[in-house]
Amino acid sequence: MHPNGLGRKKVLAELKKIREQDQQYNDGKILCSMCTKPHPVAEKAYRLFLSSNLGDPGLFPGSVKLEKEVISQLATLFHGQNCVGYLVSGGTEANLMALLAARNMAQLSQPEVVLPESAHFSFTKICNLLNLKPVYAGLDSSFKVDSSSVEKCISKNTLAIVGTAGTAELGAVDPIKELSYIALKYNVWLHVDAAFGGLVIPFLENANYKFDFTLDSVKSMTVDPHKMGMAAIPAGGIIFKDGKALNFIKTETPYLTDKYQYTFAGTRTGAAAASAWAVLQSLGLDGFKKVVGKCMKTTRLLADGLSEAGFKLVVEPTLNIVAFRSDKSTKQLAEKLWENGWFVSYVPRYDCIRIVVMPHVNKQHAMAVLNDAVKLDKGN
Ligand SMILES: Cc1ncc(COP(=O)(O)O)c(C=O)c1O
After folding, report:
1. 82-94 pLDDT, tens digit each
2. Which end of the chain offers a freer environment for a tag, N or C, measured as fewer CB atoms within 10 Å?
3. pLDDT at residue 206 is higher than 90
4. C-alpha closest to that of 70 among 47, 93, 88
């Protein structure tokens, strides 16, 4: 720290310079992220609520109202009634709170959780923290979890099954309906990680995925406004079907304005709630349909272009994620794309390049990365 302080002007000038080192979503070059440029209304809302703290709700009833409304609107989107939930730091914390509730409710001495092999890596952290044994179920040929493999993984120690509605790597939607039958049969908790897909699937045209609270066994869902909800980070969401779940995650607070907290984080910004609320309110269902429709159109264009150019799609895209391979070295192609300023992911597990077509990625960006991929692959 500077002994006399540098003053506001100098500091802001320096920050501006440093910010230039970061990639900007507007350039359309960030193709590996599940976050995007916050919607303009989200930015404004965030600034308005900058100093509010949801961790001390008695002081910020306005912010609490926004959080409750966001959770209630998301729950309605997922056909939930009387759901409860919170805005948390992201999908990781949301998944953590779900499995914490399931674990504390089940009270098993050697608890296990059945996870698809494609489950998000946050579950590795969570199993570590909660002392749960992960039991991995295999995938079918379209990279969805194989429900017969899930059933084989169930034991007397199983407390929960996790299904993903939109995997991080390929956007695959697990057969949640089949998982719900298994959960019902063995009387275990079913958690749906829809961190990414939760704000895509309901807006897809001609798709009929059953993945939400209409299924009896679905006890909790993760959905992140800071991904396809275009809210400012940190805005993850955890929704429980039944308010009783809160009894298993509550912590008494000795000095705050509310007697209990139900999130892992203590201090939580109300700005995230305001920004998520602002986007939901301002776009409405129609606005989200348009955004998702545009992402899916660009996804299709990119996937078709890649196929026509001779690349192999790992799987036909179901959500706005394209994964492809080259006949030559896919890893080298990914590296060359990075050298040329295209921030794609290379996924070793599937030996593929992955492009997430978020709202900041338009048709021109998709065509430009396609052209460069073709050129660079030829030189490989
Ligand atoms: C399916 C899924 N679950 C969980 C997460 C973790 O979310 P976060 O990084 O916000 O903690 C992600 C992140 O991309 C995800 O795609």
Report:
1. 999 999 999 999 9
2. N
3. no
4. 88
Which residues does residue 164 pair with via DSSP β-bridges, in sequence order?
Answer: 193
The answer, yes or no, to whether any atom of ligand 1 lies below 6 A from the CB of 354, is no
- Are 325 and 3 spatial neighbours (Cβ–Cβ below 8 Å)? no
Residue 243 has phi, psi (to 5 degrees) of: -55, -20
Shortest-distance atom of ligand 1 to CA 90: 10
What's CA 177's distance to the chain center, in Å? 20
Residue range 114-130, pLDDT digits in tens: 999 999 999 999 999 99
Report how far ligand 1's centroid is from the alpha carbon of 294 (Å): 22
Cβ–ligand 1 distance for 38 under 6 Å, the answer no
Residue 366 has pLDDT above 80, yes or no: yes
- Asked if residues 226 and 90 have their Cβ atoms less than 8 Å apart, the reply is yes
Q: Is 164 in the pocket of ligand 1 (CB under 6 A)?
A: yes
